[in-house]
Amino acid sequence: MPAAPGGPRLLLRRLREAMAEPVSPQARLDRIVTLIAANVVAEVCSVYVLSDDNTLELFATEGLNREAVHLTRMRADEGLVGLIAQTAEPLSLSDAQSHPSFSYRPETGEEAYHAFLGVPLLRAGNTLGVLVVQNKTYRVYSEEEIEALQTTAMVLSEMIASGELQALAPGAGSAARRAVSQRGVALADGIGLGHVVLHEPRIVVKRLIAENLDREVERLEQAIGEVRSAIDDLVERGDSIGTGESREVLETVRMFAHDKGWLRRMREAVQSGLTAEAAVERVQSDNRARMMRQSDPYLRDRLHDLDDLANRLLRTLIGHEGNGDRVLPENAILVARSMGPAALLDYDRTALRGVVLEEGGPTSHIAIVARALGIPAVGEIANATALCDAGDAIIVDGATGEIQVRPGPEIEAAYGEMVRVRAKRQEQYRALRDLPAVTRDGVAIGLQLNAGLLIDLTHLAETGADGIGLFRTELQFMVAQRMPSAAEQQTLYEAVFTATGDLPVTIRTLDIGGDKILPYMPALEEENPALGWRAIRIGLDRPALLRVQLRALLRAAGGRPLKIMFPMVATVDEFTRAKAIVEREKAHLRRHGHPLPSDCKLGVMVEVPSLLFQIDEIARAADFLSVGSNDLMQFLFAVDRENRRVAGRFDTLSVPALRAFRLIAERAAAAGCPATVCGEIGGKPLEAMALIGLGFRHLSMSPAAIGPVKAMVLALDAAAIAAVIDAEMARAGDGATLRPALSAFAKAHGVPI
Questions:
Q1: d(CA 124, CA 284)
Q2: How many degrees, rounded to 5, is the angle at CA 630 between CA 404 and CA 609?
C-alpha cells in the first residue's frame, strides 16, 4: 500500500503545526501518532520511550488499546521494540509475529497486526525510544516510508530530550535524563561536584522543518563546498597551527568530506523535509549510533573524525557561539573531547571544580596542568560530550577515574560525605606542614614540588615543601601563542626565583617533541615520536634555541644559586656538549658585565635506560641526578604509558624496576652525586616508601602528594624497610612484584599508605 499523498514533507508540515498548538504534552503526542499513522496509511502508530530504569514504556498510540498507555512496559532487550532500541537500527517486517524476537502483550490488543516498521528515536547517537507503525496486512514498507519515519523520529527525540514528556510518567525519567556512571582514567586527584559546562558548546539545531526545500538543498551544497575547500587548504598547506590537528587527522576528515554515501544520506534527509542543519544532525546521530556499537576500536576512533566533519558543517550552516571570555558559572565541571593546557588556563579557576575529557592520559600536559591547579580531572571517558548536556549535575572522581552524570540523591550524598572526609584528612596533613620529614630512625627525607607554572609556586608555603625539585619550562612555551623571547623567558625565571626565595629550584631545560608539540611550530611526522627528535636532542641540534633559554636563566639567577637539568640525555657525550654551551653562555655574560649565578650546578634526568650502563660516568660528570621515572619505566619495559592495552603490563614495584632504581641510588651515592626521583612514583606513599628503602633521600612530587608522603615518612623506619626490600628482592623471581610484601609491611607497622 503506498504512502499518503505528500509523503514526509506534508507530514513534517503538519507536525510543525501540531508542535505549535497550545495543548498538553500528552494531547500533542496523541495528535502526532495520529498524523503519522495517516501519513503512512498504517492502522497503528505507537511511541515507546526508554526510561532511566532501562525499560521501554508505551507513551502514546493510535490503533492499539489506549488504556495500555503508561501501563505497558518492557525490558530494553525485550521484543521487537527492544531489539530496535538495542541495535539503534530500523526494522521492517511483513510478518512480525513470525520473528523470533516478537513478544505478545495482550493488554495492547496487537495480535491482529502483521506488518511492522520500527525506527529508533536517536539523539547524539543515544537511543531515547522507539517509533512503531503496524498494519493488519502482510505488507512491505517502502524506503520512502522508512525515511519519513526516521525523519519524524528526530522531531520526537527533541521532544523527549527537552523534558516535555517528563510529566506524563512522573514515576520514571526519560533515558535522555538517566543517571550515567562511567569509568575512565584518573588524571588529577580530588572530587568535584558541580554542573556541566561544555568546552565546545554543542551547536543546537533549533530549526528542524524546512519551509523552502530548494533553499535548504542550496544551503547544504554550499556548506559542503565551503568545508571541503577549507579542509583541502589546510591539508595542502600542511598547516596545523592553532588547531592542534595533525595532517593524518585532516586527511581522514577530508576523505569523509568526499564520501558519496555520507553526502547522499544528508541530501535525502533534506529532501524528506528537514532543514540543512537538521539533516546534518540526523545523519550524524545515525552514524554515532552505529559506530558507538562497534567493537573494532579503529572504527570507534573514526567517530571523532565524523563528529569533527559534522561540526564543521553545522558551524558553516548556522555559525558557532564561542566561549567568550571563559567566564564560568559557579561549581563548573568542564567536559570536552580534548583540550590543551592553554585552553584550560583561559578559564576562571575560582569557579572550576573538575575536568572530564574523552581523550588525554595521566602523563598528558592537560593532566599536569590540572594537577598543578588542584582540579580533579578524568580522561578517556568514551562519548563524554554526548553523555551530558550543559547544566547537568555531574561528579568527577579524580582518584578512581569515575564520573557520575545526573546522579541520584544517594550517590550525591555518598560523594558529599567523601568530600567531607577528604577535607578532614587535608586538615590533618596541613597540621604536618611545619614538621621536618624525618623517619622514626632519624633519616631526613627532602620533599620537593614538581611545578611548571607560577601558580604552582603558591603551594610551597601551603605544603611546607623543601623547594622545587622540577620546574618544567616547556609549559610556558606551550601556553604562549608564539615562541617566548629571551626577555619574556627571563621575566618568568626571575618571577620563579622571587617566589621561591631562599628555597632551591631545579629548572629543566625545554622538553618538547614527542607528545609535547608547540602550537606555533610545525609538527614533525615521526614513526615513533617518543623515541624521536625531542628534548636535549632538539637543543643540541638547534643550539640557538637552547642558548637563548640558558642565557635567560643565567641572567635571571644573577647573584643567587642556579640548578639546571637536561632532559632525555642518552649518553655522557650529550651532557658534555650541553655543559659546553652553558660555559659559552657564562663567558658571554661575563664579557658583557652581567652578574652570574653565585653557584651553577648542572644535572641530568635519568630517563633513558642507556644511562644505567653509564651510571658511574654520568654520576661523576654531573652535579646531580634526577630520575624521571615515567619515561624510564616506559622505555625500560618497552611499554607506551599512554596505551591502555599495555600500560598495565609492568609494575614499578617489580624486581626489575626496583633493581634499576637501586642501581641509580647506589652509584650516585658512591660518586657523591645527589639523586632525586621526580617522576610520578615519588608522590605515591607506597612507592615512595620503597624508594626510601632503596636509598633515595630526595623526592619531588605534586603539591597534593606532599601531605600523604610526609605522613608516611614520619611513621616509617627507613632501616626496617630497607631490610625488608633486601630480603624480598633476594628471594623473589625476576618478574615478581614486591607490592604485596610492602603493603603488608606498612599495615603491620602502622605506616599510612
A1: 8
A2: 155
Please list the rounded mean pLDDT of every run of 10 residues in the chain (753 residues). 55 80 87 88 91 85 89 88 91 91 78 88 85 92 84 82 61 61 89 90 79 89 88 65 48 76 86 88 82 64 73 82 61 86 78 88 73 86 84 92 90 89 86 94 96 84 93 81 86 93 94 67 66 86 92 94 96 96 95 94 97 97 96 89 72 94 97 94 95 97 91 97 94 82 96 93
- The CATH number of 213-318 is 1.10.274.10
Cα 597 to Cα 551, 586, 601, distances in angstroms: 11, 9, 10
Domain spans of the chain?
A: 7-176, 180-201+323-416, 213-318, 447-606
- Rounded CA-CA distance 532/405 in Å is 40
Domain spanning 180-201+323-416, CATH architecture: 3-Layer(bba) Sandwich (3.50)
Terminal-to-terminal C-alpha distance of the chain: 73
The CATH code that applies to domain 7-176 is 3.30.450.40
DSSP 448-487: EEEE-SGGGGGHHHHHT---EEEEETHHHHHHSSSPPPHH
Cell numbers at residue 74, please?
A: 518492557
DSSP helix, strand, coil percent of the chain (3-state; round to 5): 50, 15, 35
What span, in angstroms and rounded, lies between the C-alpha atoms of 473 and 683? 20
**Given this model, what pLDDT does residue 399 score?**
86
Tell me the pTM. Answer: 0.67
Active site residue 365: yes
Q: In this predicted structure, what is the pLDDT of residue 143? A: 84
What does R_g of the chain's alpha carbons equal in angstroms? 31
Q: How far apart are CA 677 and CA 693, in angstroms?
A: 13
Neighbours of 202 (CB within 10 A): 14
Task: Map grid coordinates 572530587 to a residue.
Answer: 191
- Residue tagged active-site, from 45, 388, 673, 678: 678
673 is catalytic: no
* Burial class for 45, CB neighbours closer than 10 Å (0-12, 13-18, 19+): buried
Annotated active-site residue in 45, 199, 365, 673:
365
Give the residue ranges of DSSP H helices in 381-530.
Answer: 384-387, 409-430, 459-463, 474-479, 486-500
Contact in structure between 317 and 300 (CB atoms under 8 Å): no
Mention every residue, 6+ apart, whose C-beta is less than 8 A from residue 109. 64, 65, 68
Q: How far apart are CA 92 and CA 131, in angstroms?
A: 12
Find out whether 388 and 414 touch, Cβ atoms under 8 Å: no
Rounded Cα distance between 389 and 612, Å, is 51
Amino acid at 377: A
By three-state DSSP, how is residue 26 classified? helix
What whole-number distance in Å separates Cα of residue 236 and Cα of residue 597? 48
Dist CA 702 CA 336 (whole Å): 24
Residues 6+ apart with CB under 8 A from 287: 125, 262, 303, 306, 310
Confidence (pLDDT) at 617: 97
Give the integer Cα–Cα distance in Å for 443 and 697.
8
Q: Are 65 and 44 in contact (CB under 8 A)?
A: no
Q: In angstroms, rounded to a whole number, what is the distance separating the alpha carbons of residues 38 and 575?
A: 81
User: Is domain 447-606 in CATH 3.20.20.60, yes or no?
Assistant: yes
Query: What phi and psi values does residue 212 have, to the nearest 5 degrees?
Result: -130, 100
Which class for 747: exposed (0-12), middle (13-18), buried (19 or more C-beta within 10 A)?
exposed
Closest CA to 478 of 396, 582, 374, 364: 364
